[in-house]
Amino acid sequence: LHARCSQRLQSPRMELCHVPASREKGWYLALMAPNVKGPNYAWLDPSRLYCHPQGLQDCVADLLQPFQGDAIDMVAGIDAMGFILGAAAAARLQKGFLAIRKAGHLCVQTVAQPYSDYSGREKVMEVRSDAIAPGLRILLVDQWVETGGTMRAAIELVERLGGVVAGLSPLLCVPTGVAAICMENSEGGKWIQERYKCSHCVPPHLQPRFDQHQ
Q1: Which residues lie below 8 Å from residue 205, measured CB to CB, with a gap of 6+?
Q2: CA–CA distance, 86 with 55 (Å, rounded to integer)
Q3: What distance in Å separates the CA atoms of residue 58 and residue 53, rounded to the nearest whole number?
Q4: What is the pLDDT of residue 128?
Q5: Is the pTM of this model over 0.90?
Q6: Which residues does residue 165 pair with via DSSP β-bridges, in sequence order?
Q7: Class of residue 116 by CB neighbours under 10 A (exposed 0-12, middle 13-18, buried 19+)
Q8: Is the CB of residue 111 less than 8 Å from the CB of residue 161?
Q9: Are 204 and 213 in contact (CB under 8 A)?
Q10: Rounded to whole angstroms, what are the CA distances from 36 to 20, 33, 154?
Q11: For residue range 79-93, what is the model confidence (pLDDT) as tens digits?
Q12: In angstroms, how far is CA 57 from the centroid of its own chain?
């Protein structure tokens, strides 16, 4: 898998119908394309992963696998790329989907939370104030957790409204509910992983490469 990922991460083209004979966890990571536009952009573009029918299905299945048997009432996705995986996860779980938006897009009463994104830019996210009833168990989904600022702000919004991220597992009795393709071992990423049940798709032997953006 490591050799295939190394080769495909550099590939300018990818056959979107090809499915490997052995679909190990994370095989679809090789579909992502590296940044060719410079430091103002994310280091990988997952668009080809989302375009690949089997790749998208396997990615969502891997993200949800750790939550099998956990009580989840709703899936929430973070603006904007978290909408893709979040809506796909909600459809698979047959649950509703809540969009957590960047400020300024919702025409109803909202609750807002300032945060710094992975690039250090100061932003504000918001959610409609009547979307989360107290005790509602939320699975939070985003595309990537790099510095952790965006996801932590979403967690704070959910918890301020009385929601639970994403409820208590009847077996583990610990908070559950954060999923992303990759969760980097940054200070913020570790803070989230130490406090919430988390799921991501990067195999352990590839995690250092993703942490170093290689």
Answers
A1: 1, 2
A2: 15
A3: 9
A4: 95
A5: no
A6: 138
A7: middle
A8: yes
A9: no
A10: 26, 9, 30
A11: 999 999 999 999 999
A12: 15
Sign of torsion over alpha carbons 206, 5, 142, 176: negative
What's the CATH number for 27-211? 3.40.50.2020
Q: What residue type is assigned to position 205 of the chain?
A: H
pLDDT at 17: 75
Side chain identity, residue 55: G
The answer to whether 34 and 9 have CB atoms below 8 angstroms apart is: yes
What's the Rg (C-alpha) of the chain? 17
Reduce the DSSP state of residue 199 to 3 states and report it. strand
* pLDDT in the model for residue 164: 85
pLDDT beneath 70, residues of the chain: 1-15, 166-176
Give the Cα separation of 45 and 138 in Å (integer): 27
Q: What's the pLDDT score for residue 5?
A: 46
- Intra-chain end-to-end CA distance of the chain, in Å: 15
pLDDT of residue 213: 93
